[in-house]
């Protein structure tokens, strides 16, 4: 499941005794969230009708790692497949094996930070997962039109204005050439 789709300290759900900070949200009303990004989970939660009962399926992070260890057959340290250097992100998927993704490069980190700032300025939200997705979609595009197409295809629900897309294109370009 996505990094970031977990219960945060101080949130409404954090006050429910059966739920712990860091628990991973595995499903909402039976709909699997494995492989979903943080902003997709947040959107699904926001779309739940107020006053109506819903169900969450949660997994403690430790149990999730144990499940992966059992599946990979690694019963002792170093015996199973190497999961990385510790500088990666574990991503659970609804189909296919769990993978460890490398942390963003210095350019990507700076671009994500700049795009996250733009999200706050234009939309009043901060969401590094959304910013990271936008950088991933835009880093190999040749012009703002290609970026706009990619954003519409993947993130069309947001209906980003042209001016915002142009600024995102500029932020990614600035980070590429080291202009911070």
UniProtKB/TrEMBL annotation:
State the residue spans of region: Disordered. 69-90
Signal peptide stretch: none
- Protein name per its UniProtKB record: GIPC PDZ domain containing family member 1
User: What's the source species for this entry?
Assistant: Molossus molossus (Pallas' mastiff bat)
User: Domain named GIPC GH2: which ranges?
Assistant: 86-175
Task: State where composition is biased (Gly residues).
Answer: 75-87
């Amino acid at each position: 499941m996505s990094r970031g789709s977990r219960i945060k300290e101080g949130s409404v759900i954090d006050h429910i005794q059966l739920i712990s900070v860091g628990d991973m949200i595995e499903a909402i009303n039976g709909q699997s969230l494995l492989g979903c990004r943080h902003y997709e989970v947040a959107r699904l939660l926001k779309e739940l009708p107020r006053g109506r009962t819903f169900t969450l399926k949660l997994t403690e992070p430790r149990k999730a790692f144990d499940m992966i260890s059992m599946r990979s057959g690694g019963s002792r340290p170093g015996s199973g497949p190497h999961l990385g250097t510790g500088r990666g992100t574990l991503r659970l998927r609804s189909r296919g094996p769990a993978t460890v993704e490398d942390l963003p490069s210095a350019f990507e980190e700076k671009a994500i930070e700049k795009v996250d700032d733009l999200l706050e300025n234009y939309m009043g939200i901060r969401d590094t997962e959304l910013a990271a997705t936008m950088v991933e979609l835009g880093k190999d595009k040749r012009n703002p039109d290609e970026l706009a197409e990619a954003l519409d295809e993947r993130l069309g629900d947001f209906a980003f204005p042209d001016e915002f897309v142009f600024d995102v294109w500029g932020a990614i370009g600035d980070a590429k050439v080291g202009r911070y």
